[in-house]
Amino acid sequence: MPTLLRTGPYTFFIVLHDCAERRHVHVRGGGRGEAKYWLDPLVEQAATRGYTGRELARIDREIRDHRGSLIGRWHEICEGETT
After folding, report:
1. To the nearest 5 percent, what fractions of the chain are helix, strand and coil?
2. What separation, in Å, do the N-terminal and C-terminal C-alpha atoms of the chain show?
3. Domain ranges for the chain
4. Which residue has the higher pLDDT, 30 or 39?
5. Quick one: pLDDT at residue 82?
6. Is-cis flag, bond preceding 2, omega within 30?
7. How many CB atoms lie within 10 A of CB 56?
8. 3-state class (DSSP) for residue 29
9. pTM for this predicted structure
10. What percent of the chain has pLDDT over 70?
11. With 0-12 CB in 10 A as exposed, 13-18 as middle and 19+ as buried, what is 35?
């Protein structure tokens, strides 16, 4: 599971077998939560558990702030992984 970004207590990563899916990131951190966010066409929460609304707002903001680099890293890592 390659890490794309670490910021604050959060680690943003991808799962290689997910490369065939629409671009997204998984997020863990803060001790108890996990989430999945689509990166395009818009940043959108796909799944979440264990995070408070405040934590999700911070995660959403981090993804929006780093969206370009997250998409770039997605391409670097997933190139050749999709079928």
Report:
1. 35, 35, 35
2. 18
3. 3-78
4. 39
5. 47
6. no
7. 16
8. strand
9. 0.89
10. 95
11. buried
